[in-house]
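Quick board copy: two proteins, each given as sequence then C-alpha cells.
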Amino acid sequence: MRKRSCIFIFLFIVLLSLSACQNKEEAIKEEITEETSVTEEAIESGIPSVYIRLDEEEGLSKINGSEDHTYEISGSFDLIVPEGYEDLQSVKDLKLEYMRGRGNSTWLADKKPYKIKFEKKQDLLNSGFNKHYVLLANAYDRSFIKNRLTSYIAEKMGMEYVCDGVNVDLYVDEEYLGNYLLCEQVRIGEGRIELDELKDADTAPEIYGGYLLSFSPWAEDEEENIFVTSRGVSFYNDTPGFVGEDKDAGTTRQKEYIRDYIQRCEDAIFEQSDVYYGDLLDMISTADYWLIQEFSENSDGFKTPSTYCYKKRFETDGSEGKLYLGPLWDFDRAFGDTGFGDGDTAYFNHVRHDWINELRDKEEFCDLLKERWKLLDQVLADVCKDGGILDRWKKENEASFIKDQERWKDFYAMNEGEELSSQNAIFEDLKDWIGKRRKWINEDLEEIGKILAKITIVYPDGEEKRVKMAYGSFLYEEIGKYVPEGSVLEGCYDDKEQRIIENASIHQDETIHLILQKAE
C-alpha cells in the first residue's frame, strides 16, 4: 500500500511538471509571436522554426558579403517547436556570441550556410551541451535530409559519434531564408566528439590522444597543420592545431607523435612493417565509414577535408587508443544526385582512397565489409519501408518544402531547369535509387574486393616492376608515376603488342610495355 501511495504522489508531481512545461512552451510561442510578428503558419509548421535577430542593421548582408567568413555579428536566438514534435523543446532569447558564414563550395550558392556560437552552452538537440552549432543550407540537396539521413544510418550502425541535426525553417531579422538543418558541428568537446583534450605541456601517456584530423586538406589551409605521408596521403591537424606563436615544445612533441602514428598506420596497412594494422586502426569504424560513403556514392568522400578521423587516448581495456574513421559529414551530393549526373548503382569503387584500396585487397577486411553490409542493408530497408523514417521526414517537411521552393525557385531553376521537381518525386527517386543500389550490392557483393589490379610494367631495357593500380583508374595517369626521371612516356602496348589508347582505364591484371623517349 505504501508503495502504491508513493507511486500516486510521484505521478501527480510528474503531471504538474508536464503541465508547467506545456504552459512555458505556450508562453514562449505567444511572446515570440508578439515580438517578431511571426505568422501563425510559421508556428504551425511541421518542423521547428529558428528566429535569429542580429545586433547590426543589414547584418545578414554583411555576413553574406564576407567571403572568408571572418565577419561575425552577435544577436539572439529563438527555437520554436511545434506541438507533437518529439524530443525538442522551445527556447527563447538565447544570446549568440556570433553568427557568420561557413562552407567552401556550398558558400557559392545563393542559399548560404551559417555557423552560430552561443555565449553559454546549450543543449538544443538533446545530444549534449555545447556552444557551437551550424545551419546547413542543403542548397544542392532538394530532399533537405541527406546529411540527416547519413547520421541516422551511422547511429543505427553503431558508429560512436554522429552529428545530430533537425530540419528547421530559418528566419533572420524576420526574413525567411528557407529549410535548413540545425546541426552539431564536428569538433572535440562535450556533447560532440568526447575525447580527452590535450594540454600544451602533455607528454606520454597523455600525448596518445585525443586528436581530430581530416583527410585531403584544402591548399589554402594553414601549412603548419598539413602533413603528407610517405605514400602521398595528406592530412590536416584539426584539433589540436599547431599554428601560432604561443605553441611551445610540448605541442611540437604532440605534432611529431600524431604524424608518426599516422605513418605507422600507413606502413602497417601496406605491410611495410611488422605491426598488424588492426592494432593501430579500428577496423569496424573503417569498414562502416567506407561502406556508407561507397553505398551513397558521396562525391566528396575522401576528396575534401569533410573526411574525418580521430585518435583516442586509451581503449576501454587501458591500451593505447587507436585511430578511428568518423564522424560522417557532408553528404548533400550523395545518394544518386552527386552533382555530376545520376549515380550508377551497378558499380563499386565510387569512393576510393589509397588506404581503403589496400585494405580491400586483403581477404580479412573484405570479409568484414561483407559482414557489416548485412547490417547496413537492413538499416536501409527500414529507412525506406512504408511509414519509415523517410516517410516521416517527408511529411514533416511538406509545408517547409513549398515555402523554401518559393523562396529559392530562381536559384533552383538555374541549377535544375525551370520544371522543378515536386517533393513527392524527389523522395520517390531517392527511395528508388536506394532500392536499386541495395539490389546490385546484394547480387554482386563478391565484387567488393575487386579494387587493385596487379600490373607488371616492362621497361625498354627489359627491367620489370610489379605494382598495384586501382580498377577504373586511367592507365596512362597511373603509369606516369613510374616513368624514370629524364624520360618521357611516348606510349604503351600489351603482351599482344597492341597499342593501348590514351584514355584506357585499368580493368584487369596485365603486363604493360612502355615506350620511352629521353626528355629534351
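And the next:
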Amino acid sequence: MKKLALLLVVALVLPLFAAFAEGGDLSEPGVLPIWTGSEPAVIRVLTPENAKVIWEDNEYTKWIEESCNVKLEFSFLPATDTAAKFAAMVAADELKDFDVINYQLSLTNAKMYADQGAIRDVSDFFAEGLAVNCDAAVAKHPEQYLISSITTAEGEIFGVPKIQIAPQNETKYKMWINQGWLDNLGLELPTTIDEFYEMLVAFRDEDANGNGDTADEIPFITSTGFGGTATKFLTNAFVFEGDNDMFLLVDGEVSVSYIQDGWFEACDFLKKLCDEGLLAKDSFTYNNDALKAVACVEEDLVGVVTNSSCAFMGVATDPIRLRYVPIAPLTGPEGVCYSAYAASATQTCWMVTPWANNPELCFRVGDFQFTEEGYLRGRYGIEPDNWMYVDDYMALYPNVTLELLIAGDHEKKYVMWNDIRDQTVNNLYWYEHMPYYAGDVDFENCYVADDGEGNVTNFENNATVRQNTITGYYQAVKPGADVYVPALAYSTEELAVLAEYQTTIRTYVNEQRTKYIIGDESDLADRDLFMKQLYESFGLQEILDIANAAYARQYAK
C-alpha cells in the first residue's frame, strides 16, 4: 500500500515538474518577477475573443509577461453567445486545458460554475496574504466593498475582481429641465420639492414655450429608459430608494423603502402631479423613442424629463438636447435629499481552474494587474502616447484650459486619453477584458475647456459636460454607510427562499405604485391592505430576515 501511495504522489507531481522543467520558484508576495525560473512559466488563458485586439503581440500582454516572468497562451471564447458557449464547455468538461478563465462573471454565476467543478475557490490565497494589490485597494477604499461583494455566504472567492468606478452610472436617475421655459417665465432652477411643484404649475398655466397657446405644454414627461422613470428621482426627496429590492438601513437593520412613511408620502406627491396634469401618465409606458418623438420637436413642448444623460435626444451639441439643463437632487419637506445611488458593481474575473499547473502563480498574476497602472494600460494603452495624467498634459499644452467636473474630490488623479478603440485592430491593450481597478483615477470628470485655438467646450454648449458636472452634486448626496446596503451574497438555501418571493414582490410594489399614481385601482389606496399583502402574500419578513443575515455576515463589522 505504501508503494502504491508513493506512485500516486509521483503521478500527481509530474505535471508540475513538466510545466516548470527549467526550475524556479515563486517570489515573496509583492516581489517581481513572481516566477523566478530561468524560463517563463506558461499560463494557459481562456478569454472572450475580440476582433480589435491582437492578443499575443500585445503591449499589455508583454507588460504582464515581462513583469511576472510568464508566457500567456491564449484560447478564445466566441465574441457572440459567449455565455452560452462557456456554459456548454463547463457542461462538457472542456476546461481541463486551461489554467485561467479571464471572463467576467457575477458572483451568482461564478458560484454556480464553481459548484460544477469548473472554478477554484481562491479564498485561501487571500487569507495567506497573496492578494497584495487587492488588499491594498481594500485598505485604501473600504467603502467600495471590493472583495466582500464577491465573497459567497460560505466565504468562497472565485477570482481576482474587476471594477470600474463609474460615478455617472452610479447616480443614473437625473432630472433635466427646459432652461428656455425657465427664462421665459423668469424662474430659477428649483432646489426643493415645493419649488419644483410651483414650477410645474407655472409650466402648465403660463405659456412656458411662449407660442401664445397655454394648453400645448407638457410640464413633466419621462420614459422607462436608462435613468428614466418618474419615481426614483422624486422619491429620494422623501426617503432613500435604490433599485431592485429597494433595501436601506433603518437603525442598523436592513429594511425596504416601500414600508417607510416617506415612501408613501412620495407616492402621494407623484399622484398629485398626475391628478393635476403636471406629470403625463405616458411616462410609465413610453420608451426613449416615444419620448423623443414628443420632446425633440421644434414646437418645444416639454418642460421636464428624467434620464441618465438624454443621449437619446441627439449628440452632445444638438440644439434641442441643449434645451435641457440638469438639476441637483431636490430637498423634500422633511429635509431629505438623496440621489438614487447604486455602487459600481464588482465582478469576478481572472478565475483559476482546478486544473491549473500552478494555482498560486496564476492567482498572483491576476492580482498583479489589479492596480491603477494595470487599469490605465489595459484600458488605454501606453503612457504618454495613448494617455497621460492631466498635470503632464498641461505641461505640454500650457495654452489649453482644463476643467475638473466633480467638486470637492481633489485627491483623484485625472487623465487625458486618446481613445483608439474605434480602430479596426490594435495591439496596445485588452479592451478592458482583464481584472482591473481604476483606483484613484477618474477619467470621466476632466475635459478640455479651451483647445488653445479659441474653441471652448463648456456647460453652455455641451450636454456631456452638463451630465458630468451634475454627477458631482449627485455623488455629494449619495446615502452613507448608515443608510446604504451594498450587494448581498446569499447561501444556496437562502436563494431558494428568495426565488419564491423576490421577483413577485418587486413586481407587486412597482405595479401598485404605478397604478396608484396614475389613478387606477391600487392596494396603495389602503395602506394597511398593502402592508398585509407584502407580509402575508409576498414573504417580506422572510426576505428581510435573509437580507439581515447576509448583511451581518458581510458588512456588520
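Board note added afterward: The chain has a mean pLDDT of 90.
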